[in-house]
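Re: the pair you flagged

First of the two:
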Amino acid sequence: MSGPGIPRTVGRAREEAAVTPGADLQTLVDDLADELGRSVVVNDPMVRMLCTSRHFGDEDAVRVRAVLQRDAGPEVGAHVLGQGVARWGGPGFVRGGEELGMHDRWCVPLREDGVLLGLLMVIDAGRTLAAAERARIDEVARTAAALLHRDRTGAGDRERERLLLRLVGPDPLDRAAAVRESGTTGPGAAAVVEVGAALPAPEVEVALRATAGSPGRRPDRTLAAVDDGRAVLVASRPDVDVLAADAERIVLSVEHLLGRTGVAVAGIGPVVPSPELLWRSAGRAAAAARGARLVPGLGPVARWDGLGPYAPLLQLPPAELDADLVPAPLVALRADPRAARLVETLRAYLDHGGSIPRTAQALHLHRTSLYYRLDQIRAVTGLDLDDGRDRLLLHLGLLVADLTG
């Protein structure tokens, strides 16, 4: 299921200039300008204005002309490009020019996959930007680059993304049609990366697209689509270890871009023998991602085949898996003042198959103390720990409690 990558060639003015900024980029520029109290602009690679903030009393003649005429003029572009900004590997100052009526500017080249998409500039006539302010500008610049990259994505890329989402979607007829259209054959596997925090949807989409949506950053024969706060990866030459490593990279990169830790998780689905079953791998990958979010011991990247007894429970719809499913005897035990000690003992006892010697060893308890605790558990729950069905009820209840809090 491989697809053509995005060209990496730098300097194709016609292609690079064909970026139409969206509302998300304008909002980003406005927010940064308000935060800094300085005028901010994003230009295309030829130094033509794409979007700009309001003035903050720091405007110069070049900025006023650019805002009024939507173009600062070719002499300004030549002045900026003449300082080599198109080749810069990082941010720096663009010198102003008295003859142009131009103050110094802090300039960050906006690149994605090595392609120059634009220039983010902040007026700084006295070069007084603090280190923290420069760091914040660099952070926003990464998001701006991802937004420009998203806005320049071609129709063919969007169609491939829609096709991938149809391959793993809920409609059987649509899935079958997508398989025919894709021409895909052979085994495959899916991974799902999710961002679950209450973060602005545009920021989440940008972060996911910047890390998962770029063909140059994915393993060979792996496609990605971003939709509704998640990224779906499908590998048609599946190596689950490679897929898991890619998902882990995306999780770390997304959190870095969002400036938040612990907000992204990933799930890895099983290998399936044909593209007709990719939906199943994707569904189980989503279940594994859900498990990674709910059970810290599984995450942040969980594999379906590593979920153990959580797997069937995670196949339940989220609305159906709630605390009401925890059995009443276990609810009583968790409400007991000795709950922390007794629940730990019960879990160890059940995890070790009811073996007294192994449970005592795991808890570093004398057997007499263990028997005493088990008697307390029997008294609180009213259940017989020698009865297999009662033990199963409690064990299942502990798993449900893990998933429902």
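Second of the two:
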Amino acid sequence: MTLFADLHLHSKYARATSINMDLEHITRGARDKGLGLVGTGDFTHPTWFKELKSKLEESPEGSGFFSLKGERGAPKFMLQVEVATFKSTPKKVRKVHHVICVSSFDEAQQLNDLYSKWGNLAADGRPMFGNRPCAELVEKTKQLCPKAVVFPAHSWTPWFGVFGSESGFDSLEEAYEDQVKHVFCYETGMSADPGMCWRLSKLDSFTPVSFSDSHSFWPWRLGRECNAFSDEVSSFDDLWTAVKKKDSKKFLFTVETDPAYGKYHWDGHRNCNFSCSPAESRKLKGICPVCKRPLTIGVEYRVEQLADRPEGFVPKGAIPFKKLLPLHELLATVYCTSLSSKKVMTEGTRLMNEFSSELNVLLEASRETLLKTTDEKIVDAILLNREAKIKVKPGFDGEYGVPQLPQEALLCEKPAEEKPRTSQQIRQKSLGDW
């Protein structure tokens, strides 16, 4: 049985996160998705840490995995947090987000004691550490907790990715300096996939991993990117050893959304409703034709800046990946409606119940079985998705990409071209945003 793991998410104590991101809702969402292991998120937040200690128990003892007390079976939890470091340099202010995973509450407490000297842990589930270089974070963390795993989060996003166009570095060695010896993996983020990262030979010694960075328990967010492990992986040490060694017998593949679905794939300006490819951006010299200000440079452009290999290169021993859009995105596209519409929610829930989980629907269910359960056009979309054949209008500057299907594949009349949104509409959040 495959163990699907999503080890980067947030609790209700992080900013811009659903108030329902508690252990009970995360458990429900993980079961719907088909995840066997999820991160707790935010173990540095004092209130959340108390809740984790009161509601979780190690299961089995010594594994570094935790379960809700009184609950049997999936999902299990791993203690995890995302932190932000800021450091002014002659070139720019370096702003980098990092994920940290530990195997015990004792380790988490030791790190909380240290980090509380660096910043206000109660202010946000994702604490911010000013005047703190990446290398110092890793060095001090590993000195206190040698088993702790530290890696860069959403590595390519413009403002807080280690390779980001706005505040990042050109290599992991530049970012983590002499402490790069303790960093063995990096999170690709939604706007990139391993195939894009393989174009950089300097990343060959590191393992790409993929997690959701979810701010809600909805199945189109939680587990939208995750890693697949064999059932031989039954502990914290097993999992991270498999990642470090790129053990293809234990670390089977990563699940990725199409990079174009990510919010920072192309260059553009959200408020100007303008986006463009890297080639077009270069012609424009990085200037928005609408407002005449510099564009937000996206991930595809940044990868091309740093790449020393052609598209399609696959390093020896690389862990494979599968591209999948979330089920509810497929349904919303086929029905020409929103992610949180009653029609999408009802059909999504029915399919997840019928096949035990969303990942079973997306990866395993046969055409014949699906046809007995839902409309043929939905079946076609699921199978096209499985083959990574659904086109996506690229996301940009914080705007998600949009899956696109031809009219004959839809169960509706295709809506007219959307008008540019007002700034008030852009600020407003809907259920789908969480």
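Residues 342-354 form the longest helix (13 residues).

-B.
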